[in-house]
Amino acid sequence: EGYNSLNFIEQIVADDLKEGISQKSLRFRFPPEPNGYLHIGHAASICLNFGLGEDNQAPVNLRFDDTNPIKEEQEFVDSIKNDIEWLGFKWAKECYTSDYFQQLYDWAIQLIKDGKAYVDGQSAALMAEQKGTPTTPGKASPYRDTPVEENLRLFEEMKDGKHAEGTYVLRAKIDMASPNMLMRDPLMYRILNKPHHRTGSEWCIYPMYDWAHGQSDYVEQVSHSICTLEFKPHRELYDWFLDQIIDPDKLRPKQREFARRNLSYTVMSKRKLLELVQSKTVAGWDDPRMPTISGLRRRGYTPESIRKFSEVSGITKRDSVTDVSLLEYCIREDLNKNATRVMGVLDPVKLILGNYPADKTEMLIAENNPEIENSGSHEVPFSKELYIEREDFKEEANSKYFRLTLGKEVRLKNAYIIKGESVEKDVNGRITAIHCSVDLDSRSGSGTEASMRKVKGTLHWVSIEHAVKAEIREYDRLFLDEAPDSHEEKGFMEFINPDSLNIVKEAYVEPFLQSASIDDKFQFQRVGYFTLDKDSKADHLVFNKTVGLKDSWAK
Ligand code: ATP
Ligand code: MG
Ligand code: MG
């Protein structure tokens, strides 16, 4: 990688190396809160942090930021680990902020003793009111000058469960007139009588993010603590807390910020994704319409496509929205190179070859992937009665129509050239069967003169006798609005697309697909890319449509 291809965070690290920080002291972390599943926004942070680790041969910790027992669960811890591994990254150490609860408590005692922290017994509303506004100084709490001994006693009582939730908090004593509101005596601890998914009921006071995060970075000796832009005003507090406890012989972590990744036509915060799950708007965190890593995986996305998306959408200093069609472009490119080519008919109409023997089955050869050399091939059975797509036939059409019509020839993929002869219809005029003749000398790959004949159209098909019935799930955007959570008058739930899922109950696919495994990826020729869903059973195949062959958005 050339110098110029570094993003600005990579550049900060490169500059630090130039200015003398040793390569050996580089260390990074990815710090999810286990309060939901990871989404495509997190992938930006994962690729950035683990990418920095790879480029600098430096360790990257996975740190669970588990300071809020109300929202955190083991299920989320497990899914997060699974998703990061699936993306192809390995963490050096699995860490938990909760592992530092005792250390954080000890440091808090030290701050109290140094006169830098105090217990406040006022209501949250009153404390908020005293904070003032950015342009007017705040008012000191009457607890601000409580003697150290009294603070120590109250804080211990808080820890020992002697006080109810909401009665007392521990605050840092900084500056009630600071232009940075976060510096106006921020909270360090609150009382929560909630069991924690790791520490059980050992603690009933829990550290606030600002108090826990920087100190955790310090404990782990993280050199660069990279977070998103909304934490920029927190940097001053991050540094203040470090100043209170730092040993000058140890590495001092530094916080740097980059812009969150947003994606059009979706919401990205875990709280909102949880709402979609809990309201049953989607089938779960891994619903293929979700922007979660697990949803994208189930939809048919590959780790490579998500990493590629992270690379091309870049790391920026200002908030922006990436078009979801870029994500789709990344998976389409990947699947075009790697997906096995098969045939499936989603809206079948019967086609009968008049001059083909009724009792004959031919096994034709289908190349697995023309994009890959020596990708091999598989067999496709061919017989007298086939299904083709209903939309691939018109009784009459102009000369620009290259599909099947009466009196004109098309090729059946990997098979023969056929010609439309007549149709059968039901009482409503709907076509029930198309009768064709077949040029028996024209089989693809047979080397005959007839097989080389050029005809304009090529159609996909399946043999009725051999085809396997399958369920196909097609997806559209989950939201009708480009930025569903940007409206002041309306909540994001009001922009849900009611037609985001379309289930095709009776599609027919070639029998080769019966041996597919969950997550296998295919190009259904002329239709799109599909992956076998986890709901599949041996006698009931279910495919998710990952993405169409072309950018349907631009059309
Ligand atoms: P959410 O609102 O989705 O819960 P969060 O920031 O609270 O987001 P965390 O679990 O704390 O979620 O995130 C872990 C890491 O991933 C943090 O460093 C965070 O800054 C980063 N991150 C989260 N969302 C995005 C995003 N959309 N783009 C880039 N990085 C993100
Ligand atoms: Mg967070
Ligand atoms: Mg959050």
From TrEMBL:
<dbReference type="GO" id="GO:0004819">
    <property type="term" value="F:glutamine-tRNA ligase activity"/>
</dbReference>
<feature type="domain" description="Glutamyl/glutaminyl-tRNA synthetase class Ib catalytic">
    <location>
        <begin position="26"/>
        <end position="336"/>
    </location>
</feature>
<keyword id="KW-0436">Ligase</keyword>
<feature type="domain" description="Glutamyl/glutaminyl-tRNA synthetase class Ib anti-codon binding">
    <location>
        <begin position="339"/>
        <end position="439"/>
    </location>
</feature>
<comment type="similarity">
    <text>Belongs to the class-I aminoacyl-tRNA synthetase family.</text>
</comment>
<keyword id="KW-0030">Aminoacyl-tRNA synthetase</keyword>
<keyword id="KW-0067">ATP-binding</keyword>
<keyword id="KW-0963">Cytoplasm</keyword>
<protein>
    <recommendedName>
        <fullName>Glutamine--tRNA ligase</fullName>
        <ecNumber>6.1.1.18</ecNumber>
    </recommendedName>
</protein>
<dbReference type="GO" id="GO:0006425">
    <property type="term" value="P:glutaminyl-tRNA aminoacylation"/>
</dbReference>
<dbReference type="GO" id="GO:0005524">
    <property type="term" value="F:ATP binding"/>
</dbReference>
<feature type="domain" description="tRNA synthetases class I (E and Q) anti-codon binding">
    <location>
        <begin position="458"/>
        <end position="533"/>
    </location>
</feature>
<dbReference type="GO" id="GO:0005829">
    <property type="term" value="C:cytosol"/>
</dbReference>
<keyword id="KW-0648">Protein biosynthesis</keyword>
<keyword id="KW-0547">Nucleotide-binding</keyword>
